Structures
1.
Amino acid sequence: MEIYLKTWPEVEKYLKKKKTLIFPVGSSEQHGPTGIIGIDFLTAWEIAKAVGERAQIMVASPMPYGMAEHHMAFPGTGSLSPLTYIQVMTELLQSYIHHGFEKIIVINGHGGNIAPLTSAFSQILGRQGKTHLELINWWHLPEVTEYEQKVFKDENGFHATCGEISVTMKTHPQAYLKPRPYRHFKTASKSAWPLSGAQFRKTFPDGRMGSRASLASLRHGEVIFEKAVAAIQRKLGPK
Ligand SMILES: [Zn+2]
């Protein structure tokens, strides 16, 4: 159901029957010494594709970059400033609204996107009343957090979490074939927010926020992925 694998006549035909679109968004940013840079958009994208397939809802091309200013002291991170991200997301969402999509479910994989996405939604909705925009932060779904709490306890953490690393072990096992060096130490779990890139690296020196990354596993990834997909599908209701 990915829109980028369709033609325009196929999208036009879909719009005659359905007006819903799933839009996966994430970030390309550091995820500690063992988690891959693409976690936030890859998890959102894979979950979105599975939901789209099961619910027969079209899925937009993923937005792989997000508002990740606080990760900029770690190489490999690509970030858009909050204002730019709001503008980019506003215009992309408006493109699909322009074509006739009336309900857009944004499946998000990155905490830093929540505030600017909410602002983009306000920007779009403020002067019209027809479109329904919904933000689903997959890692906040109760079905997901309950499981993570049960298996990782307080060591799931807040960034480079055991849960999100596990999900990419399931979706992109080829990226985890070679074990990576990891020396566990307890990081700060809370801090004043937001932080600059330099402040973040000083507070969380290897990029993790409170997670014991070695608890991540393919098996947990399979369970969490399935829980997230099923929970979102339930939220969307019957076909
Ligand atoms: Zn992440």
2.
Amino acid sequence: MEETTNCVVCGRDGGYHRAVVDVVDERVVGALCRECEREEFGRTLERGFFEAREGCILCDRDGHVAIPIWRPVARTTDDGAVLNEVTFAIDEATVRLCDEHLAAIAEEFPATRPRPVPSR
Ligand SMILES: [Zn+2]
Ligand SMILES: [Zn+2]
């Protein structure tokens, strides 16, 4: 599966800080880089100063996307090579935003319109 890890706010490489996950499609739709998290949320998210619940952390609407933190994991393949990968877990404490609040911070959203793949 091709995953987009560019920051949804600034469009640069998100640097595996936080993933932006469409919880309806269960699809990684982008990333939120450290700089943009600071800019948009200050230290609120990293300190957990938000109301953890099912829906959007900013309003009463459904949380359309989750913004979990990427965590590095080392995986050993069948032939003994160690791969460094990143993963994330989404649970009740994961930051969620509704599509409206995500659209308020993100340049190219909603995710139903796929982002153009940047040419390398
Ligand atoms: Zn960014
Ligand atoms: Zn909201």
